[in-house]
Amino acid sequence: MARKIKVAQLVLSFDVGGLERLVVGYLSAIDRSAFDVAVGCLERRGTLAGDVEKLGIPVTAFGKLPGIRPGVIPRIGAWLRREHADVLHTHNAAAHFYGAAGAKLAGVRTTIHTKHGRDWPDKPRKVFLNRLSALMTTKLVTVSKNGYEVARTI
Asked: With contact defined as beta carbons under 8 Å apart, do 118 and 38 qualify?
């Protein structure tokens, strides 16, 4: 029997929202005979984390505080190594930035990012971090036309 592919998902938190519900739905439908899954929450667990754990998927919270916190990157890298992640799948900008950098540290070869929201073209720091994160990412997936237009410029 072939080894399962280990996919680590990284979100900001599992507070109730459309992105979070989408990820829970995705996790409930994933083919567990082919994939093992681990989930990380950049900030806090959130109210839907229990729904993920009911699926038999562990949830790790990193406790990131507001602002740029470079110390979180090696913690994510260590988590990815412990989980033996083959793929990191991030959701939204903060998870993308910290996750992509952590994946590079951990030697994760495939990083996928799903862009769920709109862009912030009037915020140069956010634009810069999005572009930097994209350089460390294998594939970008968008869920809206705006996201697609932004991804085309990266």
From this structure: no
